[in-house]
Amino acid sequence: MSAALETVLARAGLKVTATEFLSLVEDAARRLTSPQVDPAAHFTERERLALADSGLDLAPLETAEADPRARAVAEQAVLRDTALTVGQAAARIGVDASRIRHRIGERRLLGWKDRGGWRLAAWQFTEDGVLPGLDVVLAAMPADQPALVLANFMTTAQADLEMGDRPATPREWLLSGGDPHPVAELASTLGTPA
């Protein structure tokens, strides 16, 4: 199993051993998932009835059903593993580490506190700089959205951002020199009901 996993990780460009990656997954699973196997146990009887009346199924997963939390746990592990430290981000864009922390404080870069200090999602950076138009997009993004939600938005094709004959991810759009304002407009709706 570990040889196959290390092959997959290498193909994905992740510089981590199978053991390290599985440790990240275990940590993410512990932090992101509830030990409660019965979803109904999180609610009062009144809340359960209201949710059931609205069509939600609060039954526990059947043994053969895939756990929908698995994708989020894996994505969180990859997000953490590929994130840059303050020092790495500073070296990449050619500034002092204090400037990176200052940009995080101003929401010109997104970061989160993790073991060992601040971490910054890799999608925000190019090989030698910051994603063009990032400041415009970040100014519009709701501050209450988790790093994983923002990463998924920036790396998922959006129908409103067409490049040639296909939808582009916000990251691709910005890298190609696209106007950041349409991305900012889409980003401003994150976390709002559709």
Automatic annotation (TrEMBL):
Q: Please list the GO terms describing molecular function.
A: DNA binding
Tell me what this protein is called.
Answer: DNA-binding protein
For this protein's source organism, the top of the classification is: Bacteria, Bacillati, Actinomycetota, Actinomycetes, Pseudonocardiales
Task: Keyword check for DNA-binding, yes or no.
Answer: yes
* Species in which this protein is naturally found: Saccharopolyspora montiporae
Query: What are the UniProt keywords, alphabetically?
Result: DNA-binding
